[in-house]
Amino acid sequence: MQNCIFCKIATGEIPKEFEYEDKDVMVFKDINPIKPKHHLIVPKKHIKELVVAKPDEIKKLFTIVQKMIKKSKLEENGYRITLNGGGAQFVDHLHIHLTGPMGKKAGW
Ligand code: 5GP
Ligand code: ZN
Questions:
Q1: Residues belonging to the active site
Q2: Confidence at 87, pLDDT banded by 50, 70, 90
Q3: 92 alpha carbon to ligand 2 midpoint, in Å?
Q4: Which atom, in ligand 1's list, is nearest to the CA of 84?
Q5: Residues within 5 Å of ion ligand 2, judged at the Cβ atom
Q6: How far apart are CA 80 and CA 86, in angstroms?
Q7: C-alpha span between 108 and 22 (Å, rounded)
Q8: pTM for this model (two decimals)
Q9: Ligand 1: which of 3, 32, 38 to mutate, judged by most atoms within 8 Å of the beta carbon?
Q10: What is the mean pLDDT of residues 26-40?
């Protein structure tokens, strides 16, 4: 979609180093991290937000969230998943924030 920053990242128009990539999903670091690890898990296809995503698309995204939790060692160090929608999001292209470490071990 024109003028969508995450679509431009998906097509390579805006170069970005991916932490994970397959044909459907890309993962990259948030430009403005709120924790030492702040990944954005994003479908390459333009999906406006969660409520219009198909069950298979949601399943795929969360499978990659699981992968990233393990890859970033957040399973043992605490993590949070945030998904903004309904106007609470700045970028109108579905994405999941995975942030950490946090919690007991990280001292909240
Ligand atoms: P939202 O509030 O829509 O859930 O969050 C959008 C997130 O995307 C923000 O945390 C913001 O820092 C991040 N972001 C916006 N533009 C870019 C960009 O061009 N590159 C990267 N890596 N992150 C971005
Ligand atoms: Zn888009």
A1: 95
A2: very high
A3: 7
A4: 4
A5: 1, 4, 6-7, 46, 93
A6: 20
A7: 33
A8: 0.98
A9: 32
A10: 98
